[in-house]
Amino acid sequence: MMDEIPVLEEGCDVQESKIRPRYSLPMIRLTTVFVATVFLDGIVSNVLWFTPGASDYFIDSVAKYAFLSSVFDLVLVAVLKILILIPCISLREKLALRQIQHGSYVDKQHLNSVCFAVQIAVSLAGLAFTGTKGGMVLYAIVHDSNYVKMHGTCEALLICALVFSLVETGMLLASYKALERLKDIQIVHNYNEDGLEVDKDGNPVKRLSIMRLFSLAREELFMLLMGALCLLVSSGTQMVAPLYFGKVVDAAQHSMSELNETVFILLGIYVGGNLFSMARSWLFTLAGQRVVARLRKVLFQSIIRQDVAFFDTNRTGELCNRLSSDTQVLQNAVTVNMSMLSRYVLQMIGSLVFMFTLNASLTGVLLAVVPLVSVLAVQYGKYMKKLRKDFQDRLGDAGTQAEESLSSIRTVRMFSAESKSADLYGVDVDRSYQVGKKLAAAGGVFEGGVGVLVSGSIVLVLWYGGKLVHDNYTDPNKGITPGILTAFLLYTLQVALAFALMSSLYGDFMQAVGASTRIFELMDRTPKVSNENGKKLSELDGRIEFKAVDFTYPSRPDTKVIKNFSLTVEPGEMVALVGPSGGGKSTIVNLIERFYDPDQGNITLGGHNLRELDPQWFRQRIAMVSQEPTLFACSIRDNIAYGRQATMEEVMEAAKEANAHEFVSGFEDGYDTLVGERGVRLSGGQKQRIAIARALIMDPVILLLDEATSALDAESEHQVQEAVDRAMKKRTVVVIAHRLSTVRKAGKVVVIDKGEIAEQGTHDELLARDGVYKKLVHRQMMAGFSADTNAVKVDTSIEPSASSNAVEAHVINDLD
Ligand SMILES: Nc1ncnc2c1ncn2[C@@H]1O[C@H](COP(=O)(O)OP(=O)(O)OP(=O)(O)O)[C@@H](O)[C@H]1O
């Protein structure tokens, strides 16, 4: 929650990126709470002064003013406080903000001191006046038999004025330090050159409005209206029930028939109320479920549309958290919490109205504690908001940690890292527990504190009510009946309960505001690399051209990975990319897929700039087979047909081409065999062949291939190689090559080192040149030989032909 108006502008701090920061303050801070308290003081004073209405007290309090029997002066004090204290605190806050900006009060220091002095003087004078009046009235009640008592509401006004004065003075004293600490709580907003507010990535920020939060439930409006109707009826019954409760007590003192009749009505009220309550709960919860289901779908769509760079910086676990827990928090906020809030507000207002009609002075006594509890609740809400956010963050970390370990269980097992993973998870859980401990303590202290105040006020009401019942015994025209006191006490409990539950809702709403900010941020984020729109050509000829391309990964902005890179791949040509590990080969392939956009230069496909083409359209014409293909946890058939709708015949055809048909047919369930999470139930070679089939079924114009570095067993190796060779035919191929046989076949070999082209030409040309390439090949040949000789010794099943094949493997790999 923030102030609408940016409070401060830091004009001199224009950064290189032309981002201009401005600051605003949180809506709930000491100054605003103080202003609200002073206003409340004024409103309560006026209401309590007006309540006796036509009675003489009201008129006499002005016309025949007397210090001990009028409260008109207290109303004047409250109004005076509004007129002086509020402008002064606003001015002091402005001066404090100016101090943050310029580092000193400049020439306004004295003005700040004067304001503070005036405030303290007014507030202390108010407190002294109210305290003296209260003390003298109490003295007169106890000791002066001639003293004519004030109307009950006026007594309540006196008590309220005293409590408000105390609270206000306390807050003013605290404001001295609080205003110095404004810098710690201010919120930074960044504005771009066009004056639009942007986030740290430069994306426009859409302001979170409460209306937007509720607009999520627009489609459920009818359901919510019906729910609200049921809520009104059930709250109405709840409001009249205590009245009839009191009537039952009084009826019992009159006649049996009156008692039966009243009890019967009471039963009807309860049954009817609960039926409506049931309908309310059902309608609101159902609406909430619908909202969250829709929200999750929309959110997932916006996450999956994001550019690849976004996923480099956002952890999967965290994003899943947004989808599951943040949406859940929102569901509760816009529906169930909303319904509860309306119910409690209605319950409180209704009960107070009934209480005022039953006995105004008793109500005034009860209201005296309200401001105190309100201040406590607001402070508590702020503290809880921070704690809950911390708790959610810690829990999110633990979830991400668990997900990472469990999804890589094989690596964990391989390194016997079970205890390490458990320890890491344990540390995160412990961190969340530390915050949880604070949450528990804060909850307990608040409940206890509010409990003491609420029970204190109930005891006060009971005492004062008991006194009125006693008055009624001595004189039936005075005081109240036991039935009215019973009803009053039930209303008091109802108000107290509503108040306590409302303050706990405050924390929930704060949490929802946090969750919705994160959700809307994700929903509003426009991907840097758009996923749709752009030209669709009637045909793509497969020519790829890099023109002086520079590229830096957004997640590592200081390291240029590709430098002044120019390369042309003719249609139908096969180009092999070789070079040291980390040189930038995979990055080139990523750029062809337009996972990222270059910083400088252009990449064209069939003569058209990649940025102008529809990404979905051209990606359908490019297929990629990576070193370690990722399969999805569905059937083999669905995996092969992942890129497009395909018939069973087409799937089988692709599988045959990829040398996969034979082994798939050997499975009990054939093409319906489930491959497990990320294809764990298949061997490395099988996975690769399914991935080749998945690429072939797209009939791509361009094939991007990242050769596997790990040697498969001889048979698999042969099968995969054959499938790859078949797939390459009549296509433009860019292959990150690790085998000599592949490099030999390539029309052009490009050696990439440190993001630049070190050499290019055919294999023979490059060998003849006696440059980097030749050195790399020789060095790796030696390494390859020794490695593979060992491999042959260990695995005796490798046939001679296979071993020579394996020797060829790893040739260009990992040249460092
Ligand atoms: N997503 C990423 N975010 C940030 N930096 C990255 C990312 N991917 C790769 N890099 C960095 O870019 C550089 C080039 O990496 P790239 O994967 O293109 O090399 P490569 O030649 O394909 O290496 P290898 O043969 O080992 O796969 C490396 O320094 C790497 O650390």
TrEMBL record:
Residues 225-511 form the ABC transmembrane type-1 domain. One of its GO terms (molecular function) is ATP hydrolysis activity. One of its GO terms (biological process) is oligopeptide export from mitochondrion. It is a multi-pass membrane protein. PROSITE patterns: ABC_TM1F, ABC_TRANSPORTER_1, ABC_TRANSPORTER_2. It comes from the Eukaryota. Keywords: ATP-binding, Membrane, Nucleotide-binding, Transmembrane, Transmembrane helix, Transport. The chain crosses the membrane at residues 27-50, 62-89, 110-129, 156-176, 221-244, 264-287, 439-464, 484-502. InterPro entries: AAA+_ATPase, ABC1_TM_dom, ABC1_TM_sf, ABC_transporter-like_ATP-bd, ABC_transporter-like_CS, P-loop_NTPase, Type_1_exporter. Residues 544-779 form the ABC transporter domain. It is found in: Mitochondrion inner membrane. GO terms for cellular component: mitochondrial inner membrane. This is Uncharacterized protein. It comes from Dreissena polymorpha.
